[in-house]
Amino acid sequence: MPEMPEVEGLAQFLRERAVGRAVAAVEVGAINALKTYRPAPTELSGRTVTAVDRHGKWLDLTTQADDDGLHLVFHLAKAGWLRWYDTVPKAMLRPGKSPIALRVRLDDGAGFDLTEAGTRKRLAVHVVAAPSEVPAVATLGVDPHELTPDGLAELLAAKNQQIKGLLRDQSVIAGIGNAYSDEILHAARMSPFALTRSFDADATARLHRAICEVLDSAVDQASGKPAAELKDSKRRSMKVHGRTGETCPVCGDTVREVSFADSSLQYCPTCQTEGKILADRRMSKLLR
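Structure tokens predicted for Fpg/Nei family DNA glycosylase:
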């Protein structure tokens, strides 16, 4: 799933290529991806793209016609992506015949598709007068770039829960997902199951520093890259996430995994849990 750094990279990419261009046409390839029906996507046609913003993991294209603004707001979900064309294919989309959920054509012949692989379709597209009309955007928590050490301390104390869950909760901190929460906790040398109310001032400062360093580095790495290169760039930068069985680049221990019903986390025992191997729920069930 694209997270804050990749979504910010996509926002920068689109600002450079789409802002100032008029929308020539919008074609819907997967009706299930469209979460709003009025205004219709076709009402974006003829409007000029005036801004591209990010809200957590959501992208927001502002389009303007006279004094009337409309926003194309979308979330790429777990298997979605944005495919850019310098010249969009001329053929019209055939709904249900491809992984393309939405196609946006610009007046210079360029444009992009929103695509989604797999069978679990979660990509979400909204056409709204304001981003706050999207419930998931309206309820987002603080952006990591605006998070202060004192603000983090308040979030940690608000509810006693596992730190991995808090970092992924979009209503608390907007933009961090499964991958970067693994990387942040590895950088902070913390167990993913550490309880938030156990954090003292030193641990809170260490976590805040790790959030800033990991995400700032990832944003810098994503900046200026074409949309097609962002996924591979993200994978290459990971130290523990997605690297089960590989060697931790910090200490040389083996990266371990804990699996859940529809996701998994990766961690280094030496760096994060004082050498303790965390119980893998999936394997525990198999061994009974």
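Confidence is low (pLDDT under 50) at residues 283-288.
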